[in-house]
Description:
With 250 residues, the protein is α/β, with parallel strands linked by helices. Helix content is 38%, strand content 18%. The protein is built from twelve helices and nine strands. It has helices at residues 14-21, 26-29, 34-50, 70-83, 100-103, 112-116, 122-125, 146-150, 153-165, 181-185, 203-215, 245-248, and strands spanning 5-7, 58-63, 88-92, 127-128, 134-137, 168-172, 191-197, 220-228, 240-244. Strands 1, 2, 3, 4, 5, 6, 7, 8 and 9 form a nine-stranded mixed sheet that branches. Strand 4 (127-128) and strand 5 (134-137) form a beta hairpin. Helix 3 (34-50) packs across helix 4 (70-83). It is globular.
Amino acid sequence: MQWSIRKILHRNNEDQETQKNGVMLVTFAEPKHVVSEQFRTVRTNIEFAGAALDRCQVVMFTSSAMSEGKSTVSANIAVTWAQAGKKVLLVDADLRRPTLHATFRTLNLDGVTTVLTGKNSVGEVIEKSFVDNLDILTSGPVPPNPSELLNSKRMASILDWARENYDIVVLDAPPVLAVSDVQVLVPKTDGVIVVAKMGKTLKGDLQRTIEVLKLANANVLGCVERVKAKRGDRGYGYGYGYGYGNDASK
């Protein structure tokens, strides 16, 4: 079972542009657009997939490699949860290539890394976004040792604090096959969504990604497939496919 979300990007270098300008929040800009409805469908399916768990409050979004759409998916899904009345915290856990501050047009002077190094408390660096019910926690300055920081007791404390103060916590995490950051985050999360890009993500890479996550005892809720739209389609058409965890590695 799969969903599809299509997107047209009028950019020559998507990865660099995403880091510079952030991702497109179609769910906020045009909540009645068919693409926004598709994101809401993805959100609903994630909720159904997580219903079998004891709890599904902290959800991590990742991918096999860079530029496969995890930041776009995580941000838009977070917006749909906020629009549904949930109190949501969106966390930029990609300490190597952060994008959240660019998406929400804020500075990245303080954030996850300054909490992890003891400069700030988590409450001091949480920011309200322009979306009702949605707060954000940016990455903070890029550190030399991301994996060590994410594996620290302070990172666990951040997420424990977030559980007590929010209904849903969404983590935008680094790609699985590029670095070890995701594996150290897995024990601190309730479920993982893998984002793949049709025509770019290799089947073997997706299979290895699922294997790595399962070795880390992750609850893989499913795979969101990003499909590139035809050039003649209007604007940012998204069609996202969603398959449950057992299907994602096939």
